[in-house]
Amino acid sequence: MADNIVILTGAGISAESGLGTFRDAGGLWSQYDLEDVATPEGFARDPGLVHEFYNARRANMLAARPHAGHEALARLQRHWPGRVTLITQNIDDLHERAGARDVIHMHGELSRALCAACEHRWDAPAEMQPDAPCPQCAAPQTRPDVVWFGEIPYHMERIGKALSEAQLFVAIGTSGAVYPAAGFVAEAAQAGARTIEINLERSEVAGLFDEHILGPASQLVPEWADRMLEPRR
Ligand code: APR
Prior knowledge:
By secondary structure, the chain is α/β, with parallel strands linked by helices.
């Protein structure tokens, strides 16, 4: 019986595709105040600024391409004999464009829109406007379908179940600065899983991992996935 693998990715896996991370030097939170663009209060104060921020990130996403690391995770999903659950904190679609399936976007998706009034969801246009009416209820309260600070991440029940059944947990490209994602390694270890961190540098929760593979994801993730898929000796 092959191991169940749970993978958690963060902004670091999209860095080499040209999408900004948050907390690296020059990261998004050094360019914008997250209170203004990634909280419900910020959206209530100035929806135009919030749409400007996400319209720019959506444009970057559409211009970006997945790299060998994204492709390696899709390959692992296809060929690994056990279950591979791919959870991402990222709101870009690079995992899907690399061929990954059933990606769990716990912080939502840039490519989706949400009506703050009636909770209707639809595919987001390239540019969202602050006063655009909801296609369902016509309220001018449309927002990107992303999870802001102070809001509940999506799919937490499904994530908890996958962590409780994992034999291997791998975190890739995440600083371990934001919960609940930063707590997944402890949940997986609690369930008896082996834990690996693949990251440019040790994360804030590095001490909780059994193994660290340090360096760029575009090189290390394919190497790791190929080692996992090598025909068993
Ligand atoms: N390869 C591997 N790791 C990398 C690379 C790379 N090329 N470049 C950067 N990293 C690592 C950094 O060392 C850092 O530990 O990726 C991590 C990025 O950390 P953050 O910028 O904090 O991104 P993330 O962990 O995804 O943030 C979590 O915070 O702001 C919220 O909702 C937002 O989902 C985000 C959450």
